[in-house]
């Protein structure tokens, strides 16, 4: 029995993996990873896999990054964690200072949580509680886009709209207002992303006009609906939305958990519309893929609505045991430091061009309806009929075949349904990008060969 097989047996006896039908692993074993280095993961039998999806979109600068490693080793000898109610520490303070400095103007207060879903929960509660503190208790609703995804805790799940994640738990979820989105996959022939996004915004405008008195906030994933099959839209939608939220007296929550920290070609996606949200949710790349941490950035206006004598009972009610964890904060500081010390955004813009070149041939594939890209996120939509965009039935699990073939060739691709995407660490090379594209091409041909 190999080292991999031994660990797989041990795993099956005690572990339940996320977003997984565990029965699948009777025929397609999990892969126990021994170590990571740069873009590579290595299992216990010595097989290597190029991490083309940044281990669920979190890893920015490669596995076992020496800069982040050194920062963690230094912090470990000083402080691992301390209660964050009534106490503080240098790493958390410095990280908040850095986040206030690099996020859009007006975001001046930082609230820590543990993960992306928790950050969304914080923003939802904070928005609701703000209006409550102002006496506007009729504001209890949230507006969200169709095909959106904001996490899997109950509040975050409620404001999402991907059926796979939401339908099972629907009886547990609060009611929200869902608006048809600006997903440019459905634009007319010859219609630009910009024009389609403007046209689709009319539906949001109508909804805000009708429901603003009841609505706390609109929550949106700027530019890319990642878990919603990597669907994309133009930045003009964000600009129009910011203006409409101001007009109708509604908060804007920007969920940049997946798209923040350079993924879209700018440090934060909101920058491409030159807007500042009322809340910005950050996680995933925040610590470079090392430790669980999230942050919600908000304005002084919102902060002041909670700041009062204790007897008024206006304080924000939310806490996590590991809030502001010192190790996670130090990893985040090291991650931000890399952005500050190296020309990461400019380099990413060049890598994005190479990625586009590597994927160019997919436009002519008979079973690819669209190749779309925003910065360092590129998606390939695999379909049954290219002309009509008829999708393959989900029951056929074509994307799983792509995943399996990719692993057999040493590349970690984990499609979203029938959408294959590249979201690699920023240290990837030109040759590695072309290798990913070659394997993806082979994998799609394998998946559609019948």
Cα gyration radius (Å) = 22 Å
**Helical amount among residues, as a percent range?**
25-40%
Query: How much strand content do the residues show?
Result: 15-25%
First-to-last CA distance: 35 Å
Instruction: Sketch the topology as an H/E string, one letter per element.
Output: HEEEHHHEHEHHEHEEEHEEEHHHEEHEEH
By secondary-structure content and strand pairing, the structural class works out as: alpha/beta
How are strands sequenced across the largest beta sheet? Answer: 4-12-11-10-7-5-6
The number of helical elements comes to 14
Shape: globular
Mean pLDDT: 97
SSE order and pairing:
Elements: H1 3-14, E1 33-37, E2 40-43, E3 48-51, H2 54-57, H3 66-76, H4 90-102, E4 109-113, H5 116-133, E5 141-145, H6 154-158, H7 163-166, E6 177-179, H8 193-211, E7 215-220, E8 224-225, E9 231-232, H9 236-248, E10 251-255, E11 279-282, E12 294-298, H10 300-304, H11 326-341, H12 344-359, E13 368-374, E14 377-382, H13 398-408, E15 411-412, E16 419-422, H14 430-447
Parallel strand pairs: 3-15, 5-6, 5-7, 7-10, 10-11
Antiparallel strand pairs: 1-2, 2-3, 4-12, 8-9, 11-12, 13-14, 14-16
Write structural notes for this entry.
With 450 residues, the protein is an alpha/beta fold. Helices cover 37% and strands 15% of the residues. It contains 14 helices and 16 strands. The strands form four sheets. Strands 4-12-11-10-7-5-6 form a seven-stranded mixed β-sheet, sandwiched between helices. A hairpin with a 4-residue loop joins strand 2 (40-43) and strand 3 (48-51). Helix 3 packs antiparallel against helix 11, helix 8 packs parallel to helix 9 (236-248) and helix 12 (344-359) packs parallel to helix 14. It is globular, with a radius of gyration of 22 Å.
